[in-house]
Amino acid sequence: MKKTILITGCSSGIGYCTAHALHKRGYRVFATARRQQSVEMLLSEGLESLRLDLDDSASIQQAFQDIMHRTGGELYALFNNGAYGLPGAVEDLSREALRAQFETNVLGWLELTNLVLPIMRKQGYGRIIQNSSVLGFAAMPFRGAYNASKYAIEGLSDTLRLELMDSQIFISLIEPGPIATQFRANALKALQKYINVENSAHRDKYLAVLNRLNKPGPAVPFTLPPEAVLKRVIHALEARKPQPRYYVTFPTYLFGFLKRFLSVRLLDRLLAKAGNNN
Ligand SMILES: NC(=O)c1ccc[n+]([C@@H]2O[C@H](COP(=O)([O-])OP(=O)(O)OC[C@H]3O[C@@H](n4cnc5c(N)ncnc54)[C@H](OP(=O)(O)O)[C@@H]3O)[C@@H](O)[C@H]2O)c1
Name one Pfam family in it (predicted). Predict the structure, then answer.
């Protein structure tokens, strides 16, 4: 029998690449997307696709029930992937903006995970893969909302791993640095929606942020294609004992190393510099 996997955020980037590659590899992939137009596109490309908007509990429940119906109540893996970045200084974040960031990046993932876990417990196996980020353990200026959401995912995943220790359900975090996707274009939309640049004490610094987000092609050095993440997803799915954490890209390895060995003050200086330059 084919292994089944539910993936969120398949309209572009890492989700899109992973859905197609795993389908080709023989998996039965449920490639979900929040917009109907993206679902139509994925269907036309030969994938099994359903609508799933992480901001909407009814849509999460509906997609989950549909998939359970189609598989007879089985699911091998969940790849929590759909998310976006809201750039902006912490002091410019409204309650509404931070809530929106957490609705998608944290609460939607948790709700879906908690639907899938009883199925995995019942069948006695399962894999949950969380697409976190280097920004899930290293903070950078003007990324507070996104940092906080990925730190939250790391905290929940680390706890869940302990709670699943006596089971055959494995949870893995993937921590990519820069990957060439629609991420920056979508971050720009979020910034325009939620941040009042003109009224900000950081007004001038936002020009650099906007420059970075508008720049065509890779914005920063060491950017890798989504296939770099795919490689770790395959390991997390197929290794007998998947790793709790997978680093992807040089910046993740670098900051992972520096975080272990530098003082907080010294690391802050490097992160501030890297964040402001990028
Ligand atoms: N690119 C990077 O440099 C990078 C680095 C580290 C981690 N990541 C992580 O990688 C994951 C995928 O991002 P990506 O780089 O592939 O960016 P992307 O091309 O922008 O893809 C993000 C996907 O998430 C979907 N999404 C957004 N809001 C959603 C919602 N409410 N419900 C369901 N899906 C939603 C988007 O759908 P729409 O098209 O409808 O907006 C899109 O399919 C994210 O978790 C991101 O945090 C990315």
Answer: adh_short
Residue found under tokens 């997609």: 63
Ligand 1 binding pocket includes 88 (Cβ within 6 Å): no
The whole model's pTM is what? 0.98
Q: Is the CB of 179 under 6 A from ligand 1?
A: yes
76 catalytic residue (yes or no): no
User: Does the Cβ of 172 fall within 6 Å of ligand 1?
Assistant: no
pLDDT band of 278, cuts 50, 70, 90: low
The CA–CA distances, whole Å, from 223 to 19, 139, 216, 217 equal: 21, 18, 13, 10
Reading the block at residue 55, the tokens are 């901001």
| Whole-number Å distance between alpha carbons of 275 and 271 | 6
**Tens of pLDDT, residues 195-243:** 999 999 999 999 888 888 888 877 788 999 999 999 999 999 999 999 9
Distance 269 CA to ligand 1 centre (A): 29
Q: Which CATH number fits domain 4-277: 3.40.50.720, 3.40.190.150, 3.40.920.10, 3.40.50.300?
A: 3.40.50.720
3-state secondary structure of 129: strand
